[in-house]
Structure formats: structure tokens, C-alpha cells
Specification:
The protein is of the alpha/beta class. The chain is built from 15 helices and 16 strands.
């Protein structure tokens, strides 16, 4: 009888110790729930997707209680969006997508990322939706059959995600097929999101105790009094994100081409060639992450070729006009996407085109002027120079002094010694000269 009693006492003591340790651990301030917070306020591109996935991986490794994505995006690339959604669906920690601040939006790809989150929330004054797929790529827009395929694929994709998260699948389908968009309050009523909160602190307090489903199973969120740790984008990712901006990529492309053109037309300048080469390489890196229409790239390159040809062939400005037209047309179709965030802004395009066109016209003008200007060396440089007849100069022979040098010369009319002469042309090693009479210009 003694041994079972002792064993029961030992078990009871162990249980009491564990309970006390658990209560003590909960009372320690350092044990408060901790959430990583990142901000995405750009188009969804590969660099942005990399930033989100790296932040999610870091939050998982450091045993954070979740990741909060404060989102404000006009949309972006489908492939980058799908990478983000796959990362969220396979996450081992809760991911909270919070559309903020007021005035922000989760449009197109942003809507799909929000719906895929374990917790979807918005700030009052924000909107979500307008996720109709658009055709991008090498050849321009899609035909009706291909458009229907892409649309049906997007609908099936987002409906599956919405049903898995317990959100309104009918509305997300309308957002894809009809480009429907709603405010934060309407989205909450329609069951598209889970909460509307004025700021992150209120949101975390509001979702405390909410159950979410992870790949590892059900989990109850503990967010009241949570500590938030902001993770900013690194320098490398920041640079890549800036380069992925169509406006920046477009400017770098034109600067690169202009720099190389100046270096080739004025060898030895060095700096324009170096800057042009660097800008062109960065532009090509950016173009590989964007929906580029390569017909636009070819038109821009063809425009540069026409500018170069203007220097070699005097077309009286025809090639220059053709180059400017080619440059403008190439710029208009360079980025093949109806998404405003993935196109060059007219506020950037027009001034850039004007400056670059004026640059090429100015360089061409300098080159043409140099070609047409008077030569100061060689036989051509002698024409028009003045000198003095040393001996009598006639149709057969004579000697003149020009620029301190004695030359054999001939003249159509006899010229007496010590008369002023002007060189008309050079015939081999003999000058053809004429007398300068008083009053001649």
C-alpha cells in the first residue's frame, strides 16, 4: 500500500510543478506573443515576392507567433502572386494580411493574396477587388478563347482558396470575371475578410482567440498584448524593387542607349560609355521581371539605328524624324499590360522622350556641323588661304608664300611679284591661285 501512495504523491507534485511553471511563464513579460510586421506598398513583382517569402521564412525560423503583411498594391504579375500564395498556404505560422493605411487597396493580385491569408483584414477607407486577369507577354493581347481559359483558371484558383479559408467564393469569382471591387465594410459584410480595424493594435486585439488552420493543424491565435517587430526591406531587395518599376526600367534603357550612342559618335569621352553600359545592364535586368513587349524594344533599338544612320547618310532630317517616331511608338508598347502599375506613366514617358530626342538631335547637329565645316588640315585646308607672290605667277609656273611656306603655283591670269594672292585649290603639289585686287571681299 505504501508504494502506490508514494507514487501518487510524486505524480501530484510533478503536475503541480508543471502548472506553476506554466503560470509563471505566462506571467513573464518576455513571453508575450511576437509578430513580425512587413509593409508592401508596390506592385507585386518577383523582388516583392522574394521579400515576403524571405520574411515568412525568417519569422518561422525565429519562432514568431505570426507574420503581418500590411498591404497596399495596385496588382502585379500572376507568377509572383502565385509564389506568394503558395508560401502563405504552406506556412507553419499564421499570416495576417492587413490592407492599410486608409486609402490603400488590394487590387488584382493583391486581392488573391488577401483572400489566401489565414486572417484577412482591412482599414476603413480601403478597397479590395478588380482581379480580372489580363493578357501580357511577347505577343500582346490574347484572343477570346485564350482569354476565357485564363479567366476560368483564375476563377477556379481563387474559388478553391476562398472555400478553403471559409470566405465568400461567389464574390471572389465576381471580382475575377466582372472586376468587382468593394470597400472594407462591404467586404466584411460579404464574408470576404475577417475584420475591419483602424490600426494594427486594434486588429491584434480584435482577432485574439480566433482559430485558424495551418498545414500542421488548427491553432488559436493569441494576439492580445502582442509585441510587433518590423522587418524592413534590405538594401539589395530595395534596389531590386526600385529597378522593377517600369518607369525606372524605361529611363535606364534610354539613358543606356543614349550613353553608348554618344560614346560611339565621340570616341574617347569614356564617362558616357561607362554610364550607358551600366544603365543598359540594369535595364535588361529590370526588363526580365516585367511584362515586356519585345516589339517595343526592337522599335526603340531601330530608332537608335536611324539616329546613327543620320550621321553617316545626309537625309536632310528624314532619318532623324523616323528615329523619333520609332522611339515614341516603341515607348508606347514597351510594357504590354493594362495594369497601370506595370506600364510607363505618361508623366514620365513624355518628358523623357522630349529630353532624349533633343539629345540625339543636338548630337547629330554637332556631328553634321563638324562634317560640313571648313577643314584646317591637308589639301582641303589650304583652300581660301591668303599669301604673297614671290615671283611672277602665270598659267605655267611661279612661286608663292603661304603661311610661311614656299609653294609652286599657277594662275589663270598673270600675277606680278609681291601681289596678294588667294589659294583657290590644290592640284597635287602645286597651288592654283588668284590675285586679290583692292576692294575684293
Amino acid at each position: 500500500m505504501t508504494e502506490p501512495v508514494e507514487r501518487s504523491r510524486f505524480t501530484l507534485i510533478v503536475v503541480l510543478i508543471l502548472v506553476l511553471l506554466s503560470a509563471t511563464a505566462d506571467a513573464v513579460p518576455g513571453r508575450a506573443p511576437t509578430f513580425s510586421v512587413i509593409r508592401v506598398d508596390a506592385a507585386i513583382t518577383p523582388p516583392v515576392a522574394q521579400y515576403i517569402l524571405q520574411s515568412l521564412g525568417e519569422a518561422t525560423r525565429t519562432h514568431r507567433d505570426g507574420l503581418v503583411i500590411q498591404l497596399d498594391t495596385p496588382g502585379g504579375l500572376d507568377l509572383a502572386m502565385r509564389d506568394i500564395v503558395k508560401g502563405i498556404l504552406g506556412a507553419d505560422i499564421p499570416v495576417i494580411v492587413y490592407v492599410s493605411p486608409a486609402g490603400a487597396r488590394a487590387a488584382s493580385a493583391g486581392m488573391m493574396i488577401t483572400v489566401a491569408a489565414h486572417v484577412a483584414a482591412m482599414t476603413p477607407g480601403t478597397n479590395i477587388g478588380a482581379a480580372h486577369p489580363v493578357g501580357i507577354g511577347l505577343g500582346g493581347g490574347m484572343d477570346k478563347i485564350m482569354q476565357a481559359k485564363v479567366e476560368n483558371d483564375a476563377v477556379a484558383y481563387i474559388r478553391g482558396i476562398a472555400e478553403g479559408r471559409g470566405r465568400n467564393p461567389d464574390w471572389v469569382e465576381r471580382a475575377v470575371r466582372k472586376s468587382a471591387s468593394v470597400s472594407a465594410e462591404e467586404a466584411l459584410k460579404l464574408g470576404v475578410i475577417d475584420a475591419v480595424a483602424p490600426d494594427l493594435a486594434h486588429l491584434l486585439a480584435q482577432i485574439d482567440g480566433k482559430a485558424v488552420t495551418l498545414v500542421s493543424g488548427k491553432r488559436v491565435l493569441k494576439t492580445r498584448g502582442a509585441v510587433t517587430v518590423e522587418r524592413k526591406m534590405g538594401v539589395r531587395q530595395g534596389i531590386l524593387t526600385v529597378l522593377a518599376d517600369p518607369n525606372i526600367a524605361y529611363i535606364l534603357l534610354l539613358i543606356g542607349l543614349a550613353g553608348l550612342y554618344f560614346e560611339f559618335s565621340h570616341p574617347g569621352a569614356i564617362l558616357p560609355g561607362v554610364m550607358g553600359g551600366i544603365s543598359l545592364i540594369l535595364a535588361f535586368f529590370a526588363l526580365q521581371t516585367l511584362p515586356v513587349n519585345y516589339a517595343g524594344v526592337l522599335l526603340i533599338l531601330f530608332g537608335i539605328i536611324l539616329f546613327i544612320a543620320e550621321v553617316k547618310v545626309m537625309s536632310h532630317g528624314i532619318l532623324t524624324v523616323g528615329g523619333i517616331v520609332s522611339l515614341v511608338m516603341g515607348s508606347l508598347i514597351l510594357f504590354d499590360s493594362p495594369e497601370p502599375a506595370l506600364r510607363v506613366s505618361f508623366q514620365v514617358m513624355i518628358p523623357t522622350l522630349v529630353v532624349i530626342s533633343l539629345f540625339f538631335v543636338a548630337v547629330i547637329g554637332l556631328v553634321v556641323k563638324a562634317h560640313r565645316g571648313r577643314r584646317y588640315t591637308g589639301a582641303e585646308g589650304m583652300a581660301g588661304l591668303e599669301g604673297r607672290a614671290v615671283t611672277e605667277v602665270g598659267p605655267e609656273a611661279g612661286t608663292v608664300l603661304v603661311k610661311g611656306e614656299y609653294w609652286q603655283a599657277r594662275s589663270d591670269e598673270p600675277i606680278a611679284p609681291d601681289r596678294k594672292i588667294r589659294v583657290i585649290r590644290v592640284d597635287g603639289l602645286r597651288l592654283h591661285v588668284g590675285e586679290i585686287h583692292p576692294g575684293d571681299a
